[in-house]
């Protein structure tokens, strides 16, 4: 039985919140806005806890990079069944500029430090939709990757991963240590039960800084402008196909 | 002060949770030094800790996924699937928050029950929270406190786990407010009590497995002659007469029940014979605070939906919301909600540190009932014609809320 699964969890603006762009167009409004765990990260945590319950792993460690509030997200992971948490403290301007490359460097360093055998992440975050962290982490560690996983099973010493791809489903077998990213249909995350929420209080969260892991979080990207998508204009209804073709010609589309 | 109020109002338009509004008010005091981050963790709440908020978030998820999508259907059908929903809630630990650990509860203090009650107010109807409240905080507290171990194993444990549905049998056709004058009799014969009589307004009565029954067990004076009995409802002689067709709380099935020579073992009496009335009275503080907590969230929700509706609905060339009379009234209502919340939290804080809060709890309940009526009436008005339809939350709230003021405890 391998020792450790590392699960990355990201604190993002809650999916139900209406996003507003800041008046200075440097980003979106986050002050006072409801945040919660990225839905794909929830699926990742659920999968890790399931693997532990199947006795394939001994310990699930939840990791989050961010300011003090990231600890809330780690606590949610603990309430779902993770054993302990690591909070990588990044705040202020560094946090605003934090992206997949820096996070993957951090995760790679942690994976080595904690001697993890498996890293599970959500396939992407719903705020930036990057879909990069898992892949970059695997590359930095030179580990195999099973991305967009919709089913994960142990096959002897290897992991059998069913991936959701454009053409359908692809099944691969990869050796551990490996990186997985969770897709929507991998599982249905459990509700954090009240007993587990109370137990989570006693579980440990250690805080580290990126510097302690030898990671430089300075960004090579600069956000120039953030804008809302254009307002959707009203459409026009037509009666027949000929009308439609006529209108498209008029508009110069064909 | 006016700038703070306007700032809070402006922010409040985008927010659903009041605890985050509280954060905003503090932010205006510490404006210079703190970085531009959400300050939700740094604020001290009067009674809630991180665990309370985690509890609320988890319960909210259950409500959003397992309950709210089906509420419209259940309101129409006049019933919600009690066994299914209670099992989901029980498995997550939400039915036994302040009940003993030995019987599946969590042994937490009443502030956690209040947190649950507040969060249940996010359900889009009144009937289901009411039924849950009966299960967790009306039919079971006396049993948890005074029942024998055997009785607790048979009735309390499965109720906390959500395996058995409970109901409360106190009110009768001839006795509602005047609990002391109930007529249902339980006459002792050997090792059994023989029960005759009937109960009215039994929430979840058509689905319940057992009833916490208050009956007269002797000829002593009215406050000393009643006992609480755990009555399985599948016993011969129990007749669930009818499901009552009600104005509001429609997803909660309410039954009229009759007892015709129903035999129940004497050991099913909770605690001491003759103490039933006192036991039931003891839990009124908790029942009242629970009801207040529940309706607070619902009131907030109705105000927020009214704000959203009136913001996009135009009359006389501008949004209804921007007409001063409307805007002022909604601000007043939100103020009253906050005042009531303060009273609730103060009473809860005093209660969990061991004080008797009967007076404060009763005041809170009185205010809640009155405010809910005024609020639903005012908000309904601002919805115009739409408010009169059954498709909107505000009219459902208007119908259901009447119950809290006049007809409960």
From TrEMBL, chain A:
It is found in: Mitochondrion matrix. GO terms for molecular function: electron transfer activity. Coiled coil: none annotated. The keyword Cell inner membrane does not apply. One of its GO terms (cellular component) is electron transfer flavoprotein complex. PROSITE patterns: ETF_BETA. Gene3D superfamilies: HUPs. The electron transfer flavoprotein serves as a specific electron acceptor for several dehydrogenases, including five acyl-CoA dehydrogenases, glutaryl-CoA and sarcosine dehydrogenase. It transfers the electrons to the main mitochondrial respiratory chain via ETF-ubiquinone oxidoreductase (ETF dehydrogenase). PANTHER family: ELECTRON TRANSFER FLAVOPROTEIN BETA-SUBUNIT (PTHR21294), ELECTRON TRANSFER FLAVOPROTEIN SUBUNIT BETA (PTHR21294:SF8). Heterodimer of an alpha and a beta subunit. Heterodimer composed of ETFA and ETFB. Identified in a complex that contains ETFA, ETFB and ETFRF1. Interacts with ACADM. Belongs to the ETF beta-subunit/FixA family. This is Electron transfer flavoprotein subunit beta. It comes from Triplophysa rosa (Cave loach).
From TrEMBL, chain B:
GO terms for cellular component: cytoplasm. SUPFAM superfamilies: Acyl-CoA dehydrogenase C-terminal domain-like (SSF47203), Acyl-CoA dehydrogenase NM domain-like (SSF56645). GO terms for molecular function: acyl-CoA dehydrogenase activity; flavin adenine dinucleotide binding. Keywords: FAD, Fatty acid metabolism, Flavoprotein, Lipid metabolism, Oxidoreductase, Transit peptide. GO terms for biological process: fatty acid beta-oxidation using acyl-CoA dehydrogenase. The keyword Transit peptide applies. Residues 274-404 form the Acyl-CoA dehydrogenase/oxidase C-terminal domain. Belongs to the acyl-CoA dehydrogenase family. This is Acyl-CoA dehydrogenase 6. The lineage of its organism: Eukaryota, Metazoa, Chordata, Craniata, Vertebrata.
